[in-house]
Amino acid sequence: MGIQEFTYLLQGLAWTLFLTAIGFAGGIFFGLVVALMRVSPSAWLRVPAICWIGLFQGTPLLMQLFVAYFGLPLIGFDLPAWGAVSVALTAHASAFLGEIWRGAIQAVPKGQSEAAQALGLHGFSRMFDVVLPQAFKLSLPATVGFLVQLLKGTSLAAIVGFIELARAGTIVSNQIYRPLLVFGVVGAMYFAMCWPLSLWGRTLERRMAAGQAK
Amino acid sequence: MTLDFSVVTDAWQSLLFGTLGTLFLAFSGMLIAMFIGIAGVVILRMQMWLPSLLVTAFVEIVRNTPFLVQIFFVFFALPLAGIRLNPTMTAVIALGVNGGAYAIEIIRGGVESIPKGQTEAGLALGLHKHEVFRLIVLTPALRAIYPSLSSQFILLTLTTAICTSISAYELTSVGQRIEAETFRSFEVYFTLTGIYLVISLVTMWCLAAIGRWAFSYPQR
């Protein structure tokens, strides 16, 4: 594998990071919406959130990518490939992060929001100033874990035909007929991105467990 | 925009067989995964540094790389190792290896959750080391990890869709063939998504029912 092929892989890697960043950023925003709907006392908000989460957790990410890729043009959104993939990844992330944060919100002791209510804080402030900051801390290990999953998930954009790291690997492998070398290098690149994140997530988890044991 | 789902309904037989293919991949992959998981934890518990390091490296590598890259790697590596298998069996092995790494993590967590005193009590009662592991550590640990293993199984079932990339026989590859013949991409994938949803909902329900039945003995 020459320098040219390696640069090609690095270009793919840049796209992988780009897709991950878009999916995660969008996922944070819409995931918060989903989480808040999911813990809402009103069934009109809660039930759609439950269905949304169930839909994305119960189907393969690959199908979600395909449906977005072929479905969005049908309803009039003529997006470039990366746009359709981003929409699918964002929706996917919003469901998973929504579920993670629901768990975190419900894990914050109930006394906290009762105390806030007793102090006369209104609903919005109670959620955003009292419950969510604590829930955020609780959810951090799982959120980082999902970030790793999302980064790995972007590789499925390759099957839709989008050239990111995995697809770049397939193309290079077809050119130089050294599949084991190429996929070894591609795997190592993913590993170099995911492993530090995984280690960080585990450190956070351990620190939190130590805090709770006190 | 006109949608034509007749191409999908006409192909219901292929889709049914594809679904069976998906279930076959998921079940046999999980079987291998459980085997790797238990073997890995047994090796970790021997507490020898080199085997433990190898198992840990295996777990970390598999958990931090995409399944798509893993399946390609297995697909090209097996023939070089002199093992010639059809794509479907290759997919089963890739799924087993992938699920195995997660299974090691889950089972290890479950085994560690069993207090040491329980092992010591078993040994004090004169049980053999293997009996202690099987009866006093593994069985309660299995109950503790059953929920995690169930969701891992669902995840593995959804992962089988990726096996279409090496044209293993399963639902997605059947769908792609229908798509190639009819050019009705959206209808095909929309239907597949629905079928996958039904598969995971039914599986979830069955696993919960099995869990209630198998672990119904009193907690303490």
From TrEMBL, chain A:
It is a multi-pass membrane protein. This is Amino acid ABC transporter permease. The chain crosses the membrane at residues 12-37, 49-72, 146-168, 180-198. It is found in: Cell inner membrane; Cell membrane. Gene3D superfamilies: MetI-like (1.10.3720.10). It comes from Mycoplana rhizolycopersici. It comes from the Bacteria. Its main location: membrane. Belongs to the binding-protein-dependent transport system permease family. HisMQ subfamily. Pfam families: BPD_transp_1. Residues 13-201 form the ABC transmembrane type-1 domain. Keywords: Cell membrane, Membrane, Transmembrane, Transmembrane helix, Transport.
UniProtKB/TrEMBL annotation, chain B:
Belongs to the binding-protein-dependent transport system permease family. HisMQ subfamily. It is found in: Cell inner membrane; Cell membrane. It comes from the Bacteria. Residues 19-207 form the ABC transmembrane type-1 domain. This is Amino acid ABC transporter permease. It is a multi-pass membrane protein. Gene3D superfamilies: MetI-like. Pfam families: BPD_transp_1.
